Amino acid sequence: MELKTGTTTVGFVIKDGVILATDKRASMGYYIANKNVNKIAKIDDHIGMTIAGSVGDAQFLIRLLQNSSRYYRLNSEKRISVDAIVNYLSNVLFYNRYHFPFLVQLIIGGYDNKPKLFALDMVGGVTEEKYVATGSGTTLAISVLENEYREDLSLDEAIQLANKAIKTAIQRDMGSGEGVNIAFISKKGFKYI
What we know:
By secondary structure, the chain is an alpha+beta fold. It is 34% helix and 34% strand. It contains four helices and twelve strands, in the order ββββββααββββααββ.
């Protein structure tokens, strides 16, 4: 028996940072397992990640990245770059692609000297994006972003757009629901909104 899960996550770059947003529903097939899940993980003070796919796989990868980031900071006395954490995760996903693949779709956003956003697939493929969506509600959320995204959005406009993209998916995707979580990453750091 194949067990299906669903979710909707989006990320996009604005002039002052990166917006990450997700729905709150955790589903297993037709069963709603939880109605208040946070699918945005803080990796470091300047890096965040959204998760879609297997919860156990995603939780392992979150802990791996958090620990790697802390280890890097302790050894070098500076924070890890967004590019470095993305490359590291890509290598982990690629190395495990045949025997023990991680069943995930991930978005990583962060701020070094400018905002950056990356999409990663389960075999380590990486693309740098201005806006992206993952999960079962992707086609619904991305249509909103494609029509309304601008890089010069203010923070308030970006929050409204993130809400609209996720809520559009919630209306038609049975794997998504229960509300919206949003995080903003800027030069001031990671913040849940």
